[in-house]
Amino acid sequence: MRTRAGAALVCPLAVASLLALSPPALARTPGSGPSVTSAVPTGTCVVKPSDDGKTVTVTGTGFIGTGGAALRGNAPGATVGLGNLDGLNPPGVFNLTGLPVTDYAVHQQKGGVIACREIPSDKSTNKELVRAAQERGFKAGVAAGKEAAQENCEGAKPQPPKKHPGLVAQDEAVEKAINNGFIAGAATAFNTFCRSGR
Known about the structure:
The chain has about 200 residues and is α+β, with helices and mostly antiparallel strands. The protein is about 40% helix and about 20% strand.
């Protein structure tokens, strides 16, 4: 009787132990499933409008191992077969210009659907850079104008630094915006301080 009772106590413990160990054991059983998760393509794509806003350029990177892909948009003529991008140089990259303005996504045979993200056009980016440069120049001008006024209200207003030669068009526009902002800020601070004495 003692033997049976001992066995009865031992068996549930053994069963519980086996149950606790069974998931890892089953996971390692050959043929029960893949032991290593296969890599999923993790490409990204962006949509950039043209400066006139009439077309877009779609650029994708990292589309490797897709088994074939297509770019699809929500407009007529906005679907383009990409094929297998592994063999391109660089691999997994595409760049398509002159496409209709709409939302786009890359449909992959392996890896599902990747929605493309819209980014500003070059023209919009330039406007933002120029606006930020003008604000930066204005702040610097205010500080310089106040300092000059504190020294001598009869003196000349401070001028921006000399321009750098050989700048490309965008950099030249940014520097011009900084200088214009500086002049406006310096004049405002100089005149305000000299009138009020503060």
